[in-house]
Amino acid sequence: MTIVTIDMVSSNTQSGMTANCKSALSRAVRKLKAAEDTALAHHSGSSHAANVADDTADEHQPDDNENEQDHEDVMAISTQKDTHNRTRPAMVFTDKEAKQRHSDEQVSFIILTRDNNKPDAYGASSETYGPLPWPGVAKAYNEKYGLRVGPAAMEKRARQHRSSWIAKHPTYPINIMYAEKPKAPQVRRSEVLAAKPQGYCVQSSTGKEQVRCTGGFVGADQLQTQAESFQAHVSNDRIGGWVPPDVIRNRADLNKYLDQLRSAQIERFVMEILDAQDLSLGVILADRGDLLQSSSVFQRSMNGNSDVLVQLRCSSIAVVQSYLDCTSVGGLTELPAHLLRDGSSLMRLYCFATQLEDDWVRERILALWRGFAESNAEVNLGLQDLNLLFESTRIGDPARNFWAATVHTAGLSVQLVEMFECNAELIAEIQDVVARASV
Question: Where is this region: Disordered (predicted)?
Fold first, then answer.
């Protein structure tokens, strides 16, 4: 059975086709009825197929007066639809490529803005004093792309894509030499006190009258003279202060207390811990002598310097506290027990000790790792811990070779190399270990 539906007719042929459409519809109804009667009489699929074939032969054919433009319109519509269906996958593929290019452009903008390498982004040295803080990166990103993204999202995206981005840009410098930030002249507290002594209040009480004068230190014989030069303040509603005798005041020299304060400051100082965004995580009181004996960085930076405040960058204040436990008075013969149960904290401690050039702590952590490997002990580490190791250490560090060999021995070399979030130097170290093992 053939169903004829006429939805679109050209305006110039509509009147000419009215009679033809009516006759065609009548013939179609008669053929439909004949086909149904035949099917009921024979109950055979073959006879039904024959009737359908006959109907096909009797279909309405356009006469000479019928315009062929209607068939051309239907063919044109079908052709356009088929063409659209064929080109749609190509358009989707093009949209995916454009989306990937846009994403790569955003990642490149985040990394270059964070590194703050000026004037040449691919130069080995920069005129700036260091990487741009993440709030500044988020502000520049939002202004460029018209979005509202926070600093944490910027840091996460850069951490996830930096390794793959570095692999795609081999000429980009791994270690950027930033300009040294000039230090503001610092004035010691004792010098401030000597240059600008604070005024003290000296009170004298005679009967019910109280006299107050401000200024420097005064003796008992000068009190009356200075009191006359200043406006006296008389008060009867409270008890005045007591002015001690000269023999007591002369013994209470403030310089003695200042000397003791300076000596205490030299022995101990305050360490302020900052995160990657230069936000303070807290402060720790540290022993100057222990750190000078353990860390080469402190030996160079604090030699002859009596500053009482030191700023350090670390991801966790607990790592700094663990480091101070390792360098406490008398020295530890082994690492604290709580570090043995946390592989990530141990890795962060090694990286922090590397930054401070503390070989004592680094050697004991390495010995502990080797002991774990010999006893087949389980150490829980994530990919971010291995990336941190290769970001915080230099080429030739023994921990790099140890963990690359450990990964290869565990059969994880191929899996890590194929991960796009793996550090580029970590991949190179693993490939070097694999090459040496295959020789």
Answer: 36-70
